Amino acid sequence: VKAKIAVNGYGTIGKRVADAVQAQDDMEIIGISKTKPNYEAAVAHQKGYDIYAPASSAGAFEKAGMPIAGTIEEMVEKADLVVDCTPGGVGEENKPMYERAGVKAIWQGGEEHELAGFSFNAVSNYEGALGRDLVRVVSCNTTGLCRVIYPIDKELGVNKVRVTLARRAVDPNDIKKGPINAIVPDPIKLPSHHGPDVKSVLPNISITTAAMKIPTTLMHLHTVNMEVNTDCTAEDVKKIFGSQSRIRFVGQGIGSTAEIIEFARDMGRPRNDMWENCIWPESITVHEREFYFFQAIHQESIVVPENVDAIRAMMELESDGAKSIQKTNKALGF
Ligand code: NAD
Q1: Where is the active site (predicted)?
Q2: Pairing state between β 207-214 and 184-185
């Protein structure tokens, strides 16, 4: 039998997690929740997902021609595990509901580490999530950083990491926030929260980060600087990154985030998703025991395969992290 998964909060992350779960052969979506019968709900309905909503919205869904299968509480009762993809800070309020129902729960990076007590990144700490009831899948930026820091630390030993993050201001569907013509140091007081967040997964890494918001919606761009404990060449670093299935080297004329997204479109990726870190191998430059590189991170999709692996670990469907990663990648079509 497949693990029964519910997605609470069918937005940017939730709709992608639902489709990714549905693509696996050891888990299935038993329902998704929407608060309003909007266009996203209509597509979910068309895809055949059972829609659950607050009892007070049942009439509105009925009127819109997409009758709900029940309330969010009822959805939670039917699931083995709920992936909470509600906006940051909202997920926290759902904890008592999950506890009452006795279901396992995953939260996203917008929630605090303490809510789940375990912050997850598949390549870094899959085994630690085995059988756990509560897990937090870290944010897009933290996921992108853990994927490069963990394997370098394993092979070369990381002494110190410094990162400057140019963050997309908003997701492409967001018409409310900006900036549209400014670069915003965010936060001005340094360091940014991204460094400490990496430490929620990799506690022994020394890392500091600075971040800014820039007027773009497509991807984040990281300038990563790592000081390592072993002499190495750019080729050594490339070899380590090249061994990672969730790192993709970009080149062949790709010189920007715009071209990466176009490439994802050309590959026929769902919603032009780029699940892998995109590293420019040409940017990898070694100076003494320190190296630099650029990587682009598709904020809307990078955490999606991580959520699938977190489910597999928590439900104990696979005890080996490397095998889960491979299985997830294959089912998604990496
Ligand atoms: P979103 O706003 O796109 O989607 C949230 C969805 O939850 C919306 O459909 C909203 O209607 C619904 N919702 C709101 N309150 C609800 C409630 N009480 N019950 C059920 N549904 C409710 O948000 P998102 O960008 O998908 O972010 C979700 C989480 O993922 C956050 O923790 C965020 O920090 C994290 N995250 C976001 C990104 C990103 O770049 N978008 C990347 C990684 C992680």
Answers
A1: 140
A2: antiparallel
Predicted model pTM: 0.98
Question: Is 140 considered catalytic here?
Answer: yes
Q: What is the pLDDT of residues 237-279, one digit of tens each?
A: 999 999 999 999 999 999 999 999 999 999 999 999 999 999 9
The number of beta carbons lying within 10 Å of the beta carbon of residue 18 is 24
Torsion, CA 60, CA 66, CA 69, CA 70, rounded to 10: -10
113 is in an annotated binding site: no
How far does residue 29's CA lie from ligand 1's centre (Å)? 18
253 is in an annotated binding site: no
pLDDT of residue 152: 98
User: For all residues of the chain together, what is the average pLDDT?
Assistant: 98
Domains, the chain, ordered by start:
3-138+304-332 (3.40.50.720), 140-297 (3.30.360.10)
Q: What angle do CA 325, 13, 303 make, to 5 degrees?
A: 30
140 lines ligand 1 (CB under 6 A): yes
ipTM of this predicted structure: 0.99
- Whether residue 128 is annotated as binding a ligand: the answer is no
